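[job 0412] stage=complex_fold ligand=pyridoxal-5'-phosphate status=START
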Amino acid sequence: MTDPQLSERMPDVSGADAYGTLDPAALRHVDSLKWNRYGEGVIPLWIADMDFPVAPPILAALQERLGQGLGYHLQGGATLQSALLEKLAAQGLTDLPEDGLSFLPGVVPGLYTAVAALTEPGEPVLTMTPIYHPFHLSITEQGRRVAAAPLREGAEGDTAHWEIDWDALEAAAQGTRLLMLCHPHNPTGRVWNAEELARLRDFVLAHDLYVVSDELHADLRLTDAPFESFAADPRVRARTLTLTGPCKAYNTAALGIGVLVGHDPALVRRVRAAAGGLMGHPSALSATMWLAALQEGGPWLQGTLDYLRGNRDVMHAFLDARLPWVRATSPEATYLAWLDLRAHPRAGDIQNFLLEEARIAVHDGPLFAPDALKPQYQGFIRLNFATSRGLLLEALERMADALGAEVPA
Ligand SMILES: Cc1ncc(COP(=O)(O)O)c(C=O)c1O
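[job 0412] stage=complex_fold status=DONE, emitting structure tokens
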């Protein structure tokens, strides 16, 4: 880093760069979707997984499990059930019946089956945009309609901060029976706070809505604020299904597993039944992995969160110094930054521009909106900063060089 002004503004994270030596050649192993989608020389900051190796206790548990044969299995059995019940209770999902948990091969299948079970074809389904794109796909691919309430941008110091637009939510809710909530929210990194959750609960009661709350990113919190599940409040428990899994926090997306959680076992069964025999079951390795994560993964997760906080701070310092016109979120959770580059002359084609000119791959803003709202998010990108600090800085340098050639007015 040669710019003295930039060095001064960078947080000192030099002693903590445990992942500084990540090697792109090794990351581009034959089966890596993230590293092989784009050409050699491109730094991939798109799909949401981390470039970090598997947590050692998880690796050890998987190796041991492989030595035990691979017949039909108990999906983690009572041990995984009770470890999960304990974890869910800590985020407010207390008093769950044991048959209130239903394992899935991933969280996305849970989004799809909830839409199939709780709504009819042609019906509008309520959600907020921008949002993780399978939310929309689970609605439109099953012949329902997206009723989208765009979030609104508030300001928090220098960073962008996305809030619920209550008027937009009220307007979009007309005729809907299901709210699909993302908490923490991908891509804005928001963790809905106590006030917002209370108001949302009042809202779903007033509109008599079912809620599917995707809480997959809950363990990836970058602030000290506690996390409360949407269904922590008994008033909304019977109408809410929570979806979660280990794949974001423990970086295990290759071993699909998730769980559908509900206080009303009949509702869980109803959703489960909508998939019939099509759903399949998670693998023994994924159940082993989740148990190891819950029982022994804590220290690894804490170290990883510290590293991610460092990356977030480095990214902000860099943007402040080199690209001050970029509006960036400071995510409260996730390793995803939602960046507003609309001021740039190439905003209309920003994802391609960055791919071709900076050789970095990011997700394009419009991906996170249904068709009608896509133009509103043109010029935004989602940047995944869960890589080595060295690679992150290289990617940011490339981005600044490419964007800097045409500086916004
Ligand atoms: C909010 C959210 N839900 C679900 C998923 C995917 O979950 P799974 O791989 O378990 O289907 C992601 C992946 O990025 C996500 O961000």
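The chain has two domains: 4-55+299-404, 70-295.
[job 0412] exit 0
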